[in-house]
Amino acid sequence: MAARLARAELVAGLAGIVGPEHVSTSQADLVAYSADFWPKAQIWKLAGDVQRYPPDCVVWPADEAEIAAVLGFCNEHNVPVVPYGGGSGVCGGTVPISGGVTVDVKRLNQLLEVDDASLIVRCQAGINGQRFEDKLNARGLSLGHFPSSIACSTLGGWLAARSGGQFSSKYGKIEDMVLSLRVVFPNGDIRDTGVRGPGAPDWTQLIVGSEGTLGIITEASLKVHPIPNAQRLRGYRFRNLHDGFEGMRAVMQSGLRPIVVRLYDPFDSMLALGKQRKVDRHGDEATDSGGGAVGALRRMLSERTGPSDASGDKSGGGGLLSRLSPLADSAKRRALTTALRAPNVLNRLAHSAPSPCLMIIGFDGEPDGVAADSWSAGELLAEAGGTDAGTGPGEAWLKHRYSVAFKQAKMFEMGAFVDTMEVATTWDRLESLYQAVRKAVRPHAFVMAHFSHAYREGCSIYFTFAAYHSDPLRAEQLYDTIWNAASEATLRAGATLSHHHGVGLSKRKHMVGEHGAMVHVWRALKDSVDPRGIMNPGKLFTDESFADPTHGATA
C-alpha cells in the first residue's frame, strides 16, 4: 500500500471536491467524530482520553456526486473512510480506528418523492429520523419505525445497522421496510439496487447491515403506511416470566399483530408497578415506564439508602439520587459506587423481592379492529395467567418511551458506566438464554432485562448492565469482562448477539463464534467491492477472523 497522504494534501484534495468550508480539521470536530455513543468510548473520555481514535479530517458532501468523488479520491490514495450519520450508535461502528476521512452525510437530508398511491417514498440517507417521520406525518403517512434514537439518528444509520424500532412486531425492522437503495462504492461507482438482472445478488440486503464496510448509502426507497386512526395500549400482570413468555408467544402465533409487546423481568416490573400505584393514588403523570434501567437503579438505591423526595421530584429518580443539589453530589456518588462494588449482593437484593411481571401490549389501526384485537389478545393473555392492569402502564410507556436514553449520562457523571445488549433467539430458548446471561454477568455488574421485539418465531431480550471501578484502566477491563461473559453465554445458548444495535467494534471478536466459516463469504464480498479495504476498516470482524475460521469461537 502506498504511503498515506500528508494531512495538508488530503485536505486540499477534499476541499477541491466539497469546498474548503465543508472540510474540517478543527480540534472540536476531531474530538466529536472520534467516537459515537459506544459506552466504552465514554469510559475512555471520562479517563481523560477524549480522542483515542480521531479522524484525519471530516467532510460534509452536498450530494451523491460529491460522495462518489470523495470515495474515488480516497480509494486512489488508500485513505480509510468512515461513513457517518447521526453518531448515535452504541457499538463503536463509527470509531475511526485507522484514522482517515469521516464522511458525514447529513447534508443529504431531503424527502425526494412520495407515491401516495403505492405508499412508497424515496428519501436521502442523511435525513434525521424524527424529521423524516414528521415530513411523512404531514402527508398522513408513517414509516412505522420508532427507535429510541429517533431524534438523533439518520435513515442511513438505520439501514447500515439493521435498526429495529419499538413497533417492529407489527411493522418489522428497517430491512423489512426498505425496497431499494442507491449506494456509492469505494471506486466511485454508483449502484441502484432496485435494478437487478437475472442471477444478480440482492444488493439491497447485502448493503443493509453492512455498517459502512462496503459503501455509502445515499438514498432509499421504502414502503410507508397511512397514520392509523386508533391506538390502544394497556398492561397485564403475570405471576412469573414463564407465564409471560407463554402469553407473548400465544399472541404472536395467533395471527394478531400488536405494535408492541414488552415484558419486564421481576425487578423492572416491581419498579414499574410501584410507580403506577403512586400515579393511581395521586393522579400524577408517570415519568418512567419501568423500562428505564438507569432510573430503576437510581430508584432502587434511593430505597436502600434514604427516604423518597417529598418535593414531588419528576426526574424519575426519587430520593437520594434524584436530589441534584451540589451538596448531595458526593453522597449520591458514594451510594452508587458502594452498591456497584458488590454486584452479586446488589443483584440478589434486586431480585429477592417477589413481584409479578408486567407486560405492555398495544394495537393500532381502525377503531373496530383495534378493539377486536385488544379483546382477543386479552383472552389469550388471560389463558396464560395474565391479569389486566389497565391502560396506565401502556400509556405511561408510550408517553415516555424515549426518555430513558437521556438518563444514562447521570450514571457516567457519577463515575459508573451503563450499557445495553440486545440478543435474540427462538421461543424454546428464550428463558434459558435470559438465565444464562444473568448468571454470567451478575458477578461483574448489576443486570436487568426486558423482552421486546416479539415475532412468531421468537423474541429479543434487552439486557442493561451497570458497573463501577475507581481506576479508569480497570473500569475498561471490567467493561470487557462483562461483554465477554455475556457474549459467550449468548453463543452457548444458541442465540444471536445482535437484534438491532449492530456489531461495530463492540461485538466483532465474537462474530466468528456466531457465524463460523461463513465469515469468508463476507470477506469475498468485501474484496470484490472494496479490494483496498478503505471502507470503515476493522468493523464487523477482526482481521484474525479470516486467517483462522475458528478464531473467536467459544468453547
In the CATH classification, which architecture of the domain at 406-546 applies?
2-Layer Sandwich
CATH topology of the domain at 406-546: GMP Synthetase, Chain A, domain 3
Report the uncertain regions.
Answer: 282-294, 300-327, 548-555
What is the C-level CATH assignment of the domain at 406-546?
Answer: Alpha Beta
Termini separation? 37 Å
Give the rounded overall mean pLDDT. 88
- Helical amount: 25-40%
Q: How is the topology of this model organized?
A:
Layout: H1 7-18, E1 23-24, H2 27-32, H3 39-46, E2 57-59, H4 64-76, E3 81-84, E4 101-104, E5 111-115, E6 120-124, H5 129-137, E7 141-142, H6 155-161, H7 168-171, H8 174-177, E8 178-184, E9 190-192, H9 203-207, E10 216-223, E11 225-226, E12 230-238, H10 241-252, E13 260-264, H11 266-282, H12 293-305, H13 319-322, H14 329-340, H15 343-352, E14 357-365, H16 367-383, E15 387-390, H17 392-399, H18 408-413, E16 417-426, H19 427-441, E17 446-452, E18 458-467, H20 472-492, H21 511-515, H22 519-529
Parallel strand pairs: 2-4, 3-4
Antiparallel strand pairs: 1-2, 5-6, 6-10, 7-11, 8-9, 8-10, 12-14, 12-15, 13-14, 13-17, 16-18, 17-18
Helix pairs in contact: 1-4, 3-20, 10-16, 19-20
What does this structure look like?
This protein has 555 residues and is α+β, with helices and mostly antiparallel strands. It contains 22 helices and 18 strands. The strands form 4 sheets. Strands 15-12-14-13-17-18-16 form a 7-stranded antiparallel β-sheet, with helices on both faces. A 5-stranded antiparallel β-sheet has the order 5-6-10-8-9. Strand 5 (111-115) and strand 6 form a beta hairpin. Helix 1 runs antiparallel to helix 4 (64-76), helix 3 (39-46) packs antiparallel against helix 20 (472-492) and helix 10 (241-252) packs across helix 16 (367-383). It is globular, with a radius of gyration of 24 Å. Residues 282-294, 300-327 and 548-555 have low confidence and may be disordered.
